[in-house]
């Protein structure tokens, strides 16, 4: 249970979970950047890099999945506000020294609440899609290091990790 002075905002005065009322907050430009990685065998990374994975263009499909997931975050995360996103950009880096793929998602909106959850959801679904498309070749893939790198806009201002 939380108290009125608690920084946790998804609880009412009785300690029950509720969706925060953002109706009175001004709409401002909000941006969040999140990242994560999936580690794999070198041969799996080579399949992704060469575009010869049996299921096709792994990173292309993962990019579309990430964008779709960002748009559906409020359907996946309880108490998350539905937002009209103005931009979702997803980038992948092949980390050959680490046998990993790094995913970075940038999400933007003009609204009364931030987009950190949308950016994190985009990254996680992108990495899950990579796993799904490559699991026949490598079941030991491991997703790690998901985190918000930065956020801008809103009452709390900017955060840069």
Secondary structure: elements and pairs:
Elements: E1 28-39, H1 42-50, H2 58-71, H3 73-76, E2 85-95, E3 100-111, H4 116-134, E4 142-152, E5 159-160
Antiparallel strand pairs: 1-3, 1-4, 2-3, 4-5
Helix pairs in contact: 2-4
What do these coordinates show?
By secondary structure, the protein is of the alpha+beta class. It has 4 helices and 5 strands, in the order βαααββαββ. It has helices at 42-50, 58-71, 73-76, 116-134; strands at 28-39, 85-95, 100-111, 142-152, 159-160. A hairpin with a 4-residue loop joins strand 2 (85-95) and strand 3. The longest helix is centred in the last third of the chain and has 19 residues, at 116-134. It starts with 27 loop residues before the first strand and ends with a strand. The mean pLDDT is 89.
Helix percentage range:
25-40%
Oligomer: single chain
Largest sheet: 5 strands, antiparallel
User: Strands of the largest sheet, in order across it?
Assistant: 2-3-1-4-5
**Order of SSEs:** EHHHEEHEE
Q: Which descriptor suits the 3D outline?
A: elongated
Mean pLDDT: 89
Strand content: 25-35%
Radius of gyration: 18 Å
């Amino acid at each position: 249970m939380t108290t009125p002075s608690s920084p946790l905002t998804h609880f009412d005065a009785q300690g029950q979970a509720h969706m925060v009322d953002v109706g009175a907050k001004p709409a401002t430009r909000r941006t969040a950047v999140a990242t994560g990685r999936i580690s794999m065998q070198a041969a799996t990374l080579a399949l992704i890099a060469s575009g010869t994975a049996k299921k096709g263009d792994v990173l292309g499909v993962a990019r579309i999945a990430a964008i779709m997931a960002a748009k559906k975050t409020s359907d996946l995360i309880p108490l998350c506000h539905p937002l009209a996103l103005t931009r979702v950009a997803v980038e992948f880096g092949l980390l050959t020294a680490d046998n990993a793929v790094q995913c970075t998602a940038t999400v933007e909106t003009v609204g009364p609440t931030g987009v950190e959850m949308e950016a994190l959801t985009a990254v996680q679904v992108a990495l899950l899609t990579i796993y799904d498309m490559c699991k026949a070749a490598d079941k030991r893939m491991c997703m790690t290091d998901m985190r918000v790198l930065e956020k801008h806009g809103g009452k709390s201002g900017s955060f840069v990790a």
